[in-house]
Specification:
By secondary structure, this protein is α+β, with helices and mostly antiparallel strands. It has four helices and two strands. The chain has a two-stranded antiparallel sheet. A hairpin with a 4-residue loop joins strand 1 and strand 2. The chain starts with 6 loop residues before the first helix and ends with a helix.
Length: about 100
């Protein structure tokens, strides 16, 4: 899992790009973005595990937020993710 083929590096690049366009990024957002470019991106069936592992390694940071669904008029807690730009792997990948 080392080197350029490390899926964490692709996840960092994907999420960093998404952060530029959105105030917050959920797991569903990451999965949709990965599905839109399957040839260059990550296997969609492994995204949740990869995100969970990246959070455990502090490559990604997770915050729990409460969202309001206007249709159902209910609240739901979800995690939002961002790249930990202080992590050596993320710093190396984004400074290219």
């Amino acid at each position: 899992m080392l080197g350029k083929r490390d899926p964490r590096r692709r996840l960092v690049r994907l999420l960093a790009g998404m952060e530029l366009r959105s105030d917050f990024v959920t797991l569903a957002d990451i999965e949709r973005a990965a599905a839109r470019r399957p040839a260059r991106s990550l296997p969609t069936e492994e995204i949740a595990q990869l995100v969970e592992a990246a959070v455990a390694e502090l490559v990604l940071l997770a915050d729990r937020r409460t969202f309001f669904d206007r249709t159902s008029e209910s609240f739901a807690d979800r995690y939002v993710y961002r790249v930990n730009r202080r992590h050596p792997l993320a710093r190396e990948e984004l400074d290219r």
